[in-house]
Amino acid sequence: MFLGGNDTNITRYPVSFFGTKLEDGYVTSVIGGHRTTDQLYRHRSFWIDPPYRRGRLAQALLQRLEDQAKSEGCTALWGYPRPSIMPSYQRFGLTQASRWLPDGENGVPNCYAIKYFDDHLSTTAAALSETPGDVAWFSASI
Questions:
Q1: Comparing C-alpha atoms, which of 135, 139, 110, 141 is closest to residue 53?
Q2: 43 close to 62: Cβ distance less than 8 angstroms
Q3: Residues whose CB falls within 8 Å of the CB of residue 1, separated by 6 or more in sequence, listed in order
Q4: Domain residues of the chain, as ranges?
Q5: Could you please report the per-residue DSSP string of 28-94?
Q6: Cα(65)–Cα(17) distance, integer angstroms
Q7: Which of 26, 98, 119, 136 could be cross-linked to 22 through a Cys-Cys bond (beta carbons 3.0 to 4.6 Å apart)?
């Protein structure tokens, strides 16, 4: 278990999703996450439609998730990325916190990665201004 494991009452924490969509409603990206303890927020899902994968949309999605984590009082964002997404994590400030571990799904390894929040430095405005001009943001919580 990462940093002491999950809170046994994890279901008390809401799950949040953010993404972008075209004017016709076609979803071009989505990211999701939830708290795993009172201080830690886990990034769970991440998908960007291939035509929208260039640019800084991944950074903008991660920033939305970080903003949500901070709004819930968390002090860090963590995830369990595959090698293919690790460069985007690192550009956003997450650091690899474990060796690459075998994952049962398709034999692709994962590692733990974490970003501790530094409240005096915010990249929100820069990240959100980099989203493609033809998409609009949406969000949901369950």
A1: 135
A2: yes
A3: none
A4: 14-141
A5: EEEEEEEESSSSEEEEEEEEE-GGG-SSSHHHHHHHHHHHHHHHTT-SEEEE---TTTHHHHHHHT-
A6: 8
A7: 26
Give the tens place of pLDDT for each residue, 86-134.
999 999 999 999 999 887 567 889 999 999 997 534 444 344 445 556 6
Tokens at 103, concatenated: 């994952």
Would you state the torsion angle of the CA atoms of residues 43, 47, 53, 57, taken in this order, to the nearest 10 degrees?
-50
Give the dihedral sign, CA 81/43/2/115. Answer: positive
Estimate to the nearest angstrom the gap between the alpha carbon of 142 and the chain centroid. 16
> CATH assignment of 14-141?
3.40.630.30
Average pLDDT over all residues of the chain: 82
Whether the pLDDT of residue 18 is over 70: the answer is yes
Residue 9: which pLDDT band, with cuts at 50, 70 and 90?
A: low
